[in-house]
Design goal:
Helix content is about 55%, strand content about 5%. The chain is mainly α.
Amino acid sequence: MPKPRYKTTNWRKYNISVVKDAEVLPNLLKQTRRSIKEISRDGAYDTRECHRAIRVKKAIPLIPPREVAAFWEKGHPRNLAVGCQKLYGSNKKWKRKYGYHRRSLSETAKYRAKQLLGASLTLRNYNAQVGETYAMIKALNKLTGERYARNSVYRLKCKRFC
């Protein structure tokens, strides 16, 4: 009897680990060399490790506390947000006062840049990736600058002739 001509399947077992964003933030902040003024993230980053890493960078954390948040040690910047939440019943007033909406604006800008210029870097060397990123940013600034210039010229023409 002849052997079957199909290939046998070799099964491999892979260990898939799930890493949360809040676990990665402290390592990302350690890698940055520049000074950071403020860091705005969503509520998933409301952990002591993230706040500790932000404090080391001497940045202002703009992270809304979770709904069942409690006060931390006295003088912690997070306590102000928790106090607003407990006083008003939500984070809306705190978000409005500290400009938390800028986070969504920056995420929208990053999304647009990825759509226009590609979602990944092609170079492997870190310094080359930095250069590639700067080139993308410069191209994006040029594109948006031209668009704003065209819009402002159009507005001027409309004001004069309309």
